[in-house]
């Protein structure tokens, strides 16, 4: 019996589903932390240091608002992922991609956190893009009676 290589493998799909729920939680927590980082930047807190000679300089207040907006959208999308909404998969990949860009731009301000954010966002993109939540279940096999 040959298997179709395009059919989802149950073990891989189960693993991807678990990783997707993990990704939803990571997206939720990362989005909440992004909101808090944004609030800290907008409030002119002294948590972030200004780097004088960086290629991608931007206003700290603008950077904070970008993080707040991305964080709010990320929280909504994470809840959508938790209930397996199909729209949430598309938006989660987009939010994770934007988060990767924002983390890259914030490398001089928070280098370790930026690298961790990029890695976690890549895990989110992988998990969401490999999981097929509405895959057709395998067809039930007909029982065979001996001697028939």
Automatic annotation (TrEMBL):
User: Which interval of the chain is the signal sequence?
Assistant: none
The DUF7144 domain covers which part of the protein?
A: 20-132
Which keywords has UniProt assigned to this entry? Answer: Membrane, Transmembrane, Transmembrane helix
Transmembrane regions: 21-43, 63-83, 90-107
Q: Which InterPro entries match?
A: DUF7144 (IPR055568)
Q: One Pfam match, by short name? A: DUF7144
Q: What protein is this chain from?
A: Urea transporter
**Species the sequence originates in:** Nocardia transvalensis
């Amino acid at each position: 019996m040959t298997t179709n290589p395009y059919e989802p493998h149950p073990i891989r799909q189960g693993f991807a589903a678990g990783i997707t729920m993990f990704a939803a939680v990571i997206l939720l927590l990362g989005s909440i932390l992004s909101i808090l980082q944004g609030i800290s930047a907008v409030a002119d807190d002294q948590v972030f240091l200004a780097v004088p000679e960086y290629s991608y300089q931007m206003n700290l207040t603008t950077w904070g608002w970008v993080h707040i907006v991305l964080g709010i959208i990320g929280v909504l999308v994470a809840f959508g992922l938790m209930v397996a909404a199909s729209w949430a998969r598309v938006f989660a990949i987009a939010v994770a991609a934007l988060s990767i860009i924002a983390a890259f731009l914030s490398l001089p301000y928070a280098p370790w956190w930026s690298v961790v954010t990029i890695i976690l966002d890549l895990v989110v993109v992988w998990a969401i893009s490999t999981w097929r939540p509405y895959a057709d279940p395998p067809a039930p096999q007909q029982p065979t009676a001996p001697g028939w």
